[in-house]
Specification:
The chain is an alpha/beta fold. The chain has ten helices and seven strands. Helix 3 packs parallel to helix 4.
Amino acid sequence: MGQTIVITGLAQGMGREVALILAESGFNITGFDVDSEGIASLEKQLDGMNARHFLKTIDITNRASILEFRDSVLEQFGQVDTVLSNVGIGFFGPFEEVDLEAALKCLEINVIGAAAIFQSFLPSMRERGKGKMIAMSSLVGKIPFPFESVYTATKFALEGLMESIEYEVEPFGIKVAIVQPAQVSTSFAAKIHQLPPQGSPYRERAGRFIDRDNELIKNATTPAEASRRIVNVILADKPKLYNQVDFMSSFFLLLNRILPKSIRDSILLNHMDIKV
């Protein structure tokens, strides 16, 4: 029997690509997403590959459903080798104008959602003395971007969570890894880009940011390319804690480590065309 992986947010994009690549390699594919149509089409695709799978339509905020999913996976497959937390939503807007109730939902999904799926499978991994927990973060988990304060906060929190967990679970043979993409050519950013209203003091700069971001996405790493690099992390016996899937994230993280803040800030503002 092949290895079993749990992937959250696998109905579309990189999560789906990773699932298909691993299915070709003989992995048992389990996971869930709130997108029922995407789940149904992925099931058909996996059936066509004769891949073993167990997929459900679940909202990441439904704790009871996550625990039921865990029990079903362990009953069918006996064990889980890797959990990939890929579910997440974006958030864009000047902080002064942010709807904090909507921000709370973003924190709930991006941070507590990841915590819930890891916590649910951790006991079985600990008992086996083996497993991997991998979280999809972002470049903004280390480098804050303007107009993405809430999203940045969720990724900083996620990386802090994973770094802390690593200390606790490493003695039990469990590996922890974080994936930090910058931009991938998906519709993720386009779904959240919204200009501030007329009269907003941030409207003009936010518009320049959106235009620049849209331009960068045209030449960004494709989901297929990013997914192959994520698969390399999953397959590694000893994955690194921090992993990048594109040149931009590697480049900016290097600058973040070696340059003074004033220079880093200037590069970022110029790069995103929002210098005053």
